[in-house]
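Q: Here's a chain of 494 amino acids. Please give me its 3D structure as tokens.
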Amino acid sequence: MVHYSNDYFFKKGLMNTPKHHHPDSLRIYFLTEMWERYGFYVVQTLLVLYLTLHFRWTDYDAFALVGTFTAMTYISSLLGGWIADHLLGQKRAILIATLILFISYVGLAIFPSRQGLLTALAGICVGSGLLKPNISSLLGNEFPLNSPKRESGFTLFYIGITTGIILGSTIPNLFHRAFGWPIAFLSAAVGIVFACIIFIYGIYHYKITDYHPHQYSRRGIGYTLLLIISLYFCNLEIFDYPTFANTAFTAIVLLCIAYIIYASNTAKGQQSRQNIVIGLLCLISTLFWAFYFQMFSSFALLISRIVQPTLFGIAFPAPYYVAVQSFGLILFGILIARRPKDHADIAIQATHIGKKFFMAMLLMTIAYLATTIILYFNLSSALLSPLLIIPVYLVISLAELLLSPVGLAAITLLASPKKVSTMMGIFFVSLGTGGFLSGKLASLAAIPKTIVSINTLKAVYSVAFGKMLCLLVLATILCFFANLMIKTLLNNKE
């Protein structure tokens, strides 16, 4: 029996109220992304510890690589989206991504040298870049354009992502403690196999289709291979030569700005203004993620050094705080997704999106303010209680929920159908740029190996997070004005 999405029947006029229901295929996107995120967060949550404990890197070097890896993972989405839009289609891009990720995770496990590490990380960036923008784009294609269920659908999708993060930040840590680093990284390869099988099943069972048909040719396949190989070696060069990263990231950001300007100038009326709104949302997103990704660098080492390693007598290492943050995402996500949405007009929906982005920045500011206060008033030699840090992570989880799934829904709502994967790639570039800036920002909290006393570590971290808080306040003010511009653009009906 052939299965069609609700959107199909809506477009054919055979179904009157599909916009009030989620597409059946949502479960496929949910589970596929859950297992893909499991594999990625095996690496993301363990990487800074792997570098400082296994390779004995300094904080400065570890923060630089973690920030660059995070950045290139998301920035690669720009090319991954373009390849899907112009050469492969979303489905084939995702399937190729799972193969690249599998090989990379296996390589990370069996080649424990520095070069093996960098080679595997470059491959993970390429695979994630091909997968991330395209699976989100396919989900957006399942909803009618004015469906009020779009945002809640992406929130449920994000809960799937979060479930993968919980698994990826807890189970691999147990594997590492019991069997060593290789088994933890091999579990990431198993996760991506599950993701691939689930997605293939969804393609055939739910007849998942790309945004528009593609004409495949040998030349197109050749271009695809050339672009993927070029992207891989570009990532590898950036990892090998960090000074090259500054130039590369600047060029990528300028390219994205130029593309948004081009898309705005060539579009007409409302679509032109919507493209500008996408650019403003990407600006806010960049600033948000620069502070969010501290969870995997400065926050992770802070917890490992000055926070008690147990909670109620149970081992509670740094990666578990990411799981706590993810549990918060699920809890808040279920509550938000159940709220009725009746804003069908694109301009009204996008205006609400701008407000939520600004609220996310406010919540992030509250989280950093709380962290700074905790450090300032606890400068003794005693380790901090995990109960002081857990609420900070829960506030960050609510902030993330107001920005990330909302942003994914916004791109599929605001972008032209012919450019949706490319625009999704640009949105992920904002995450990548934020990740790169997070590496720079984390250097404020880099601790020399000569400092080992708890009270001195606390004092250094107190000053560092105070500086981050000041920068965050300035960024939040900038986002306030960006949100005003979004309202102005969307209220212009000319």
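Q: Can you summarize the key feature?
A: The first strand starts at residue 310 and ends at 311.
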